[in-house]
């Protein structure tokens, strides 16, 4: 697949951003990447404020520039700076959640690989046991992704474990926990029946514990959004600011008021939407969600490749 994984385990394949080695093309492609940005969502909001500003201009023209419609521009300079600061703070809070989710999934990548190495290198000298261990570990990553997205269709796990077990996993209340239990049972059987080294068993158990810790961290991000009142107050302030801005622009720019209003509304509404989307890094319904499909596929392919290489070496 040609995926890249950095030291924190981030899978970099299939991302719509070009390599940093080509900064010129990356700049223009990023500038015109409307599908991966806020414009499709905020377009109609910007249009509404632009149309509203046009109506204000029309009313001003019909009323022959009535003095009651004039508002000083100075208060908007201060209010705009304050609003921009609030939006940036909210965006940073959302980005912290996105970044933490990225680090947690980097930990899942590393722990799955290490658990696979322990199972392949220190597990029983039984190809069937090792293959099932690797498939269960890969299934854990897929189950975690599906759990975070509230998905119960598990085609990747069915390809790994078969229809019977995938039905049991899909019926479980907590899918990652159920797969972790299957892995623990598999390790225990190797320790009790096949003489797996106790130190290797303890190392694998620590990896499994770390995986569950990472899953818990992801669930904390998913189930505890930022305070709703924070977003409500910012959006009320934003609407009030943009709804009264045309009255302050009338005397300065006259018929250019709708254009200036659009130019002001676009970045403010985009920042608001970006801050909202960054709060949910695992949901495919938001912009710029983490590429969990690619990450899980990378985990699965890496584990199966390690198993294949080990089997070929022992053949």
Estimated helix fraction: over 70%
> How confident overall, as mean pLDDT?
84
Q: Give the topology string: H per helix, E per strand.
A: HHHHHHHHHHH
Output the structural class: mainly alpha
* Measured distance between first and last alpha carbons: 26 Å
Indicate the multimeric state: single chain
Percent of sequence in beta strands: under 5%
Q: What ranges have pLDDT less than 50 throughout 5 or more consecutive residues?
A: 1-21
Largest sheet: none
Shape category: elongated
Tell how many strands the DSSP assignment holds: 0
DSSP helical segment count: 11
Query: Could you tell me the radius of gyration in angstroms?
Result: 27 Å
Which SSEs are present, and which pair or pack?
Blueprint: H1 23-31, H2 39-62, H3 74-122, H4 127-148, H5 155-161, H6 163-171, H7 175-193, H8 198-223, H9 228-253, H10 257-277, H11 292-314
Helix pairs in contact: 2-9, 2-10, 3-4, 3-8, 3-9, 3-10, 3-11, 4-5, 4-7, 4-11, 5-6, 7-8, 9-10
Task: Please characterize this protein's 3D structure.
By secondary structure, the protein is mostly helical. The protein has a domain at 99-224 and 292-314. The chain has helices at residues 23-31, 39-62, 74-122, 127-148, 155-161, 163-171, 175-193, 198-223, 228-253, 257-277, 292-314. Residues 1-21 have low confidence and may be disordered.
């Amino acid at each position: 697949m040609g995926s890249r994984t950095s030291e924190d385990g981030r899978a970099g394949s299939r991302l719509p951003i070009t390599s940093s080695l080509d900064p010129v093309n990356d700049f223009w492609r990023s500038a015109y990447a409307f599908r991966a940005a806020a414009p499709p969502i905020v377009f109609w909001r910007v249009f509404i404020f632009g149309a509203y500003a046009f109506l204000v201009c029309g009313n001003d023209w019909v009323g022959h520039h009535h003095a009651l419609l004039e508002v000083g521009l100075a208060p908007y300079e201060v209010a705009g700076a304050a609003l921009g600061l609030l939006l940036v703070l909210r965006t940073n809070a959302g980005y912290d959640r996105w970044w933490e989710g990225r680090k947690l999934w980097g930990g899942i990548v590393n722990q799955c690989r290490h658990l696979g190495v322990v199972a392949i290198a220190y597990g029983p000298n039984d190809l069937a046991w090792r293959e099932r261990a690797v498939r269960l570990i890969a299934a854990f990553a897929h189950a975690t992704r599906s759990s975070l997205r509230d998905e119960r269709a598990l085609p990747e796990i069915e390809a790994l474990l078969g229809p019977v077990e995938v039905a049991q996993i899909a019926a479980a209340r907590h899918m990652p926990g159920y797969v972790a239990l299957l892995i623990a049972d598999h390790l225990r059987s190797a320790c009790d029946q096949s003489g797996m080294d106790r130190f290797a068993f303890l190392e694998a158990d620590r990896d499994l514990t770390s995986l569950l810790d990472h899953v818990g961290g992801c669930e904390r991000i998913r189930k505890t959004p930022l305070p709703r009142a924070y977003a409500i107050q910012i959006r009320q302030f934003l609407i009030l600011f943009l709804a009264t801005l045309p009255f302050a622009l009338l005397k300065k720019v006259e018929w250019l008021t709708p254009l200036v209003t659009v130019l002001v509304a676009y970045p403010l509404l985009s920042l608001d939407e970006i801050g909202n989307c960054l709060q949910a890094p695992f949901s495919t319904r938001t912009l710029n969600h983490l590429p969990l499909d690619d990450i899980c596929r990378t985990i699965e392919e890496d584990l199966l490749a390690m198993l294949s290489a080990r089997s070929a070496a022992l053949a």
